[in-house]
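Please go through the sequence line and token line underneath and see whether the fold suits the sequence. See right below:
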Amino acid sequence: MLAVEASLASSVGAVGLSSLDALTLVLLDESSFRQGRRAEQGQNDVARLAARREPCGDLWNLFPASRRINQHGKRDRLPSAAALARAREPILTWWRMASDTDAALADRFWAEARTALPIAANTSYGASFSGLEWRRLRVSQDQQPPEWAGRT
């Protein structure tokens, strides 16, 4: 596990999860987030768009997640376009919050996002999310992995 991933996992578990409810369940449990449920400490994981197919450890590709749903629900499936669209606001919130906590992390996020995603040098989190959608589509077309529709 990368040092950043370990830090993310411990941060997610250590913070009093009021604003992290969405972030802990980003792509992985939209229904729990909408219902305002809290993630349990020690039950957190770090999710990627599709871990084996997109093993990138870039910050734009790391999301706090429910361990149960990440390992038993989503597994290595690619989130569907609809699941990703439903997770837009929690992802944007996570990116902003993570960047606001540390200027070095923000610099790294933007450097990695500009390198891997089709976004301009001076861009927004919204444009980065569009780049994430593009990346999901590329993985889907190139590798044709099974998709995960998320929890509804």
Summary: Residues 1-39 have pLDDT under 50 and may be disordered. The chain has one domain: 3-148. Residues 3-148 form one domain. Helices lie at 3-14, 20-24, 30-34, 67-74, 81-86, 88-101, 103-116, 125-143.
